[in-house]
Every structure is written in C-alpha cells, then in structure tokens.
Amino acid sequence: MKPIKAFYLCLFLSYQIFSVNKNSVSTTTKNLKLKTLDSLINVTKNVKSFKDFTLQYINLAFKQNKHSIATAKILKLCSRIEVEFNDPDFAILLLNKLITHKKKIKDTYLLGGIYQKKARAYYDKDNFDKAFNNCDISIKNYGNTRKDSIYKADAIFLKGQILVKSNNFIEAIKNYEIASMYYENLNDLAYTFFIKTAITSIYSKIGLNEIAIEKLLDIIEKKIFLKYTIGLTSNYYNLAINYREIDNIEKYKENLDKALIHKKNSKSNDGFIPYYITAIAQYYLQYGTLENAKTYLNYAASEIKVNKANVISIDFFNKTKSFYLFKNNKPQKALELAKKTLAEIEKKGDLDAKKELNKLIFDIYVSKNDSKNALKHYQSYAQIKDSIANINKISVVNYYQTLSKKEKEEQLKNDKILLLKKNNKTKKQLLISIIIFTILLLIIIYLYWNRLIFLKEKKMQDRFSQKLLLAQEEQRKRISKDLHDGLGHSLLLIKNKIVSINDTSIEKLINDAIEEMRSIARVLYPFQLKGIGITSALDNLMRKLDKNSQTFIFGDIDNIDNLLNVEQKVNLFRVVQECLSNIIKHAKANSARVTLKLIENHHIYIIIQDNGIGFNYVEKLNEDKSLGLKTLNQRVDFLKGSLKFSCSKNKGTVIKILFPLK
C-alpha cells in the first residue's frame, strides 16, 4: 500500500503546483515543478501518466530555456520507452519536439544524441530508410571530443545494424570496422571485441566461413595477448561451427573442447556450461560413437541438475538427446522429447532448431509407418528449410550485388582519379620527355662526334702505318740493291783475283761472304717477286726456311701470279715470312704448314698452322716488345683483310688471313 499512497501523494502535489496562477509563479516554484515532474516520470508505471508527465516536463523546460536539461532527460528516457513501454512513436514525438529547438542546444553530443535516438526508434519500427538517414545526421552533428567519440561510435555501430537488416553487408561491415576503431581508440575493449565478433557473424551468415575463421582467430589471439577473457568461450564455439561448415572436423572438435574448458575455468554462473557439453555430445552423434555421445549427455544432465542451467542450454540438451534416443533405437521416447522441445522452441523462433526437430519427428514417424503425421512434419520441415534457404540466398545475393556495385563504383572512382592524375601530369611528362630527348640527343651527338674523331684518327694512323711500311720497304729495297750492286760487285772482283793466285782458303771465305750478303739482300727485299712471281717466291721461302731450320715446313699454294699489285705482293710475302719466322723462333714446333687458296677469284685465304706450344695472342699483342705482331696486323690492314689467331696450350697455333684481291 505504501507505494500507491506515495504515488497519489505525488500526483496531488503535482496538481496543487500546476493549479497556481501563472503570473504569481516564481523561479523557485518553476524549478520545483520541474523537479516534481522529473520525480513523477521516474516512479510512474502507468503509460498514460508517464506520457502526460513527460510532455509537461519538456514544455516547462522549454519555457524556462532549459533546453540542454530537457534534451539530456529525454535522451535518457528513450531507452526506458524502448525497453519498458515499447512505444517508438512516442519517442519520435518527443525527439521531434527537441529538434524544433535544436538551435538553442549547444552541446554537440546532445544534438547527435537526438538523431541517434530517433534512428533507434525508426529501427524498432523496421523503417530502415529513416533510421539510416537519422544515423547519418547524428554522426555529422557529433563533435571531435572524447565524449562525442563514444556516442559517435554508437551511432556508427547502429548504422551498421541498420545495414545488416537491409542486407547491405558490405557497408555494414565497413561501418562496424569504423565503430570498432573508435572503441579501440577509446580503450573500450568490451565493445571493440563485441563488434569484431559481430563482423564474423556476418561472414558466417553469408557463407564466407574462411574469412570468419581468419577474423575469429585474430580476435582470440588478441584477447589472449591482452588477457581479456570476456566472450572468449563463444569465440571458440563460433570458430568450431565455422570449421564444421567447411568440413574441417578435427578443428571443429578441437575448438569445441577449448570452448568447454574456457567456460569451466571462467567460473561464470550463466547456465551455459551444459550447452557446451551438449555441443560435444552433438559432435559425437554426427561424427563419433553413440557411447561417447551418451557419456557427454549424462555429463550435461548432471550439470543441469547440480548447477542452474538457462533455457537455451536446456532446449539444446533436449533437442540433442532426442536425436540420441532415436539413433539408440528408442523412437517413442525420442518422439515425446522432440515434441516437447519443439513446443518450447516454437515460442522463441529458433528456425534452425525448429527445422532439425521437425525433420527428426518426420524420420521417427516414417520409422513407425505413420505417414499422416510424417507428412505433416515433413511439410513443416520443408517450409522452414525453404525459408532459411531463401533468407540465406537473399543475404548472399545482396552481399555479392552490393560487392559488385561497390567494385564498379570504386572502379569508376579510380578511373576518374587516374584521368585527373593523367591530365595533371601531362605537362610534367611532356617537359620530362623533352629534357630526356634533349639529353639523349646531346649524348648521341657527342658519341657520334667522338666516333668521327676516332675513325679519323684511326684512318690517319692506318695511313701513317701504311706509309711507314712502304717507306721501310723502299729503304730495304735501296739497301738490298746497294749491297748487291756495290758490296757484291766488290766481293766478286776480290774473288776473281784470289782465284788467279789459287788461294783456296781465302776463296772459300769470300764465297761464304758473298752468299751471306746475298741472303741479307734477299731478306731485306724479295727481288724474286719481280723475277719469278709471288707464287714461286713463297715456295722458295718455305724451302729455304725448311732447309735452314729444325722445323719441317711445307705447304699448298694456289697460283696467284698477276692477281696482285706490287704493294700487295710485298705485304703478302712479308706476312707469310713473319709468321714462319715466329714459328721457328718461338713455337718450338716440329712442323708448320702453309695453305694459300684462291676463293672464286675474289679473295685469298691463307692458313698457317704449327704443332708448337701455342701462346696467348692478346697478352703478346699488348706487350711493348711485340713489334712483330703489331707489324703483322698493320700489313693485314694494308691488305684490307682480317686476321684471326686460334691458340691452344701445347696444341699449336692456327693463323687465318683473308683479304680481297681488289
């Protein structure tokens, strides 16, 4: 009786206060009225009285210019209106009154809160479009303070919930992730992990179990690292269910065990321990033995008796036990328990459980040959199954449609950005291209100029070398002629006088001197080129060198007389002479062969090879003392030909020379 008397006493005081003449009401009286109405609102349980007092309160607060106080009060009452009275329309009425005075409300968190509560009211009315719009306005009205961030995170989370209801899963996940970042920055671990878990539920719902598993593993890892155990049991259980959906039975069982162990260690008295024990029993019914299933069902039953189990755990236990009884050839007991459990679940709207129980009852009636009742429950089963399938199908289709639309929008956005970047960079690219082109052109010109200079210098060097060789040959020719005509003639006169006195010893010395002088003259200049021709001159050269050395020299020479001019003959002769001299001096060869071929009356091809010790052509050419090789190269250049050395250690040397006739 005391609460009733107190209520009527308050009502009487309220009447007395509001019956006073308005003109005589003081400020103190107005404040007293507001406080009285506030008290009446807090204690009243009558819906009509609650509404009347609330409207009087808000109107009086506006008259007193206490807009922020009125707003804070109404925002607080909205939760009560939602939970206790379930009247979203009245909440919207009050919030609209606040919006008409929003210019006088300075606090950003109050302004944002008005639209957030309005969004929640529309959400409760399933008017998701208006709920979404009010959520957006709410987010825009919140400021950047820490206090505002908390409410902004709530609004973004609500927006995500609205998008889930609208099957717009891509945007829902995006908003959940943003809200999660806000909560994480605010060090609100409870809401951070709650939203992250909600994201995994979306992925599970639309069949993206691999992504759900990945995210659940991440959540579990972070919780363990932070030693934050709230919700860890359900994380393990959800992880197990996702593994089951992808047929990873080993991981399914492993995480069921982890869920049960963690639940028992948490010492939480929420009545869910039997639930997780029953889940393991269900695993054994599907993938193990009936004996193991029985063990865990008995374990769950003892937990239900000893500790207070909640309704969800009891329904789940009864459902699982029904399946066990049917599999254990006890159809009548299974039928009775299944029907009883179905009746309980019908009140709660668990579609999956209703589907499973109707299918079980159908199977039991089929085993009992009761086709009438079997058909009835099969129809219920099929209807629920189709309903779940349609919901899942719509969810998945909406997800991928949204994803496709989002990808197209992103692609269009990216294309526009790329186009803008391309347009902005055109001048820079053109300028860079011009600079690069100019630099490359200067480099090309520089290289070309250097090449011209190099070719000119090489040409001058070749010309100088040729003139030097010609001058050397002329000098040798002159010295050879002087030796032959001068010294040679004098030696012959001396010889004739010695013959007349019949001194044989002196005559022999004179003959040797004459022969040596002739050899020197022939070496200095091969006069036989004019007399017997280049072909015979080369034959004579090989015979003489073969006779006067330890190396066996032979060859095969085509007739090339009358094909070369004087300079070509001299240079060809010198080339062969220099190659054979080098073989005799340095190769330590037993034999050497000279092959000279005339190729189609256009080219002369010479091969000179030995079986000596070989040498490194590049090293010898770069030595300061290798004058012979350098001269050899110069003479081949003079012939406009090519020179190639093939050397192998202890396998001899092959020299190949090719030059044109003209």
UniProtKB/TrEMBL annotation:
Give one GO molecular function term.
Answer: protein dimerization activity
Substrates-to-products reaction catalysed: ATP + protein L-histidine = ADP + protein N-phospho-L-histidine
In terms of InterPro entries, this protein maps to: HATPase_C_sf (IPR036890), HATPase_dom (IPR003594), His_kinase_dom (IPR005467), Sensor_HK_TwoCompSys (IPR050482), Sig_transdc_His_kin_sub3_dim/P (IPR011712), TPR-like_helical_dom_sf (IPR011990), TPR_rpt (IPR019734)
Task: From the record, give the transmembrane residue ranges.
Answer: 430-449
What range(s) does the Histidine kinase domain occupy?
Answer: 510-662
Q: Which UniProt keywords apply?
A: ATP-binding, Kinase, Membrane, Nucleotide-binding, Phosphoprotein, Transferase, Transmembrane, Transmembrane helix, Two-component regulatory system
Cross-referenced Pfam families: HATPase_c (PF02518), HisKA_3 (PF07730)
Q: Which domain of life is it from?
A: Bacteria
GO cellular component terms given for this protein: membrane
Family matches, as Gene3D superfamilies: 1.20.5.1930, Histidine kinase-like ATPase, C-terminal domain, Tetratricopeptide repeat domain
Q: What is its EC number?
A: 2.7.13.3
Query: Which enzyme class?
Result: transferase
In Swiss-Prot or TrEMBL terms, this protein is called histidine kinase
Organism in which the protein naturally occurs: Polaribacter reichenbachii
